[in-house]
Amino acid sequence: MSSGDVKYCQNCGSKNPIEQKFCGECGKTFNGSTKEKMSTEQKTGMAQGIISFVLSLFGLSCLPFLGSIAAVITGFMTADRKTNNFAKAGIIIGFVGISLGIIGILIGIYAALA
Q: Of 83, 88, 93, 105, which shows the fewest CB atoms inside 10 Å?
């Protein structure tokens, strides 16, 4: 088996060895022994999940609050967010960034009024 012999799950898009009978990520059985290609929807979902994750990191560092909001929106736009770990991480980190932003604003208001 060469390193290129993989098949993609039609359900969650994860890579699996060509000889595997079911997906190691979601458990869906494969149809026969043919290589299954990642669909355009799965590729788009994976890209959106990665974008959500990257935006969430920007939200915690370079673009406070705005990056986090964009990360949460992009994460929820991902069609397969239940199985896409990047989308899950983007949503969670995005909400953490939004929470920290709100806390920072409240502390700033309190300091200005004190």
A: 105
Give me the count of residues in the chain. Answer: 114
Mean pLDDT estimate for the chain: 83
Q: For 52-99, write each residue's pLDDT tens digit.
A: 999 999 988 888 888 999 999 999 988 777 778 889 999 999 999 999
Counting other chains too, the contacts that 86-90 makes at CB distance below 8 Å and 24 or more residues apart are 86/46, 86/49, 86/50, 86/52, 86/53, 87/45, 87/48, 87/49, 87/52, 87/53, 88/49, 89/52, 89/53, 89/56, 90/49, 90/51, 90/52, 90/53, 90/54, 90/55, 90/56
Can you give the residue range of the structural domain that contains 17? Answer: 1-38
19 with 69, same domain? no
Confidence of residue 37 (pLDDT cuts 50, 70, 90): low
Are residues 34 and 4 part of one domain? yes
